[in-house]
Write a structure and sequence with these properties.
The protein has 164 residues and is mainly alpha-helical. It has 2 domains: 41 residues, no CATH class; 75 residues, Winged helix-like DNA-binding domain superfamily/Winged helix DNA-binding domain (Arc Repressor Mutant, subunit A, Orthogonal Bundle), CATH 1.10.10.10. Helices cover 57% and strands 7% of the residues. Strand 2 and strand 3 form a beta hairpin.
Length: 164
């Protein structure tokens, strides 16, 4: 047990201010665990829909970034998605092997790769729209639009404050 917390002071612990630790039974009260669990649940909900399109969730994030702004550097995609180069490079290579994008040397800086959608990559966006990923998720969770907007705002705030 955690001797430094009484039952009254420990039930809502999210980020303890002291170095004392709550017992493992407190796991479900931790914000980090709630975020982790929710993130996993969302990815599990998306997986069957993305499988139909032959996309993983991280590949989907890269494609979303490119559909919003085509002809960008690998670095820009990394900044947009929060994926580091070690993670991003194999994803981009895999998407290129599927014929959805191309990688060429940048004309402005030969050290950079320019990532461009192919016609097949642009057409894939229509398949994603037809799957209605966001609508599918919205139908699975009982949250009002305002609650979903607040949830996104809070997640963005946490990510920004923790350095993403």
């Amino acid at each position: 047990m955690c001797a430094n917390y009484s039952d009254a002071s420990c039930p809502g612990v999210y980020w303890p201010q002291s170095s004392a630790r709550c017992p493992m039974s407190e796991l479900k009260k931790q914000v980090c665990f709630a975020l982790y669990s929710a993130s996993n649940a969302v990815m599990r909900a998306y997986r069957p829909l993305l499988d139909k399109l032959d996309l993983t969730y991280t590949q989907y994030l890269v494609m979303l970034s490119l559909w919003a702004r085509d002809e960008v550097s690998l670095k820009e995609i990394g900044q947009e998605t929060g994926l580091d180069a070690g993670t991003l490079t194999p994803i981009v290579k895999r998407l290129e092997s599927k014929g959805w994008l191309t990688r060429t040397v940048s004309h402005e800086d030969e050290r950079q790769k320019c990532i461009r959608l192919t016609e097949a990559g642009r057409q894939l966006q229509q398949g994603v729209k037809e799957c209605c990923l966001a609508d599918n998720l919205r139908n699975q969770v009982d949250l009002a639009d305002a609650e979903l907007a607040e949830l996104k705002r809070l997640c963005d705030r946490v990510a920004a404050q923790l350095g993403r």
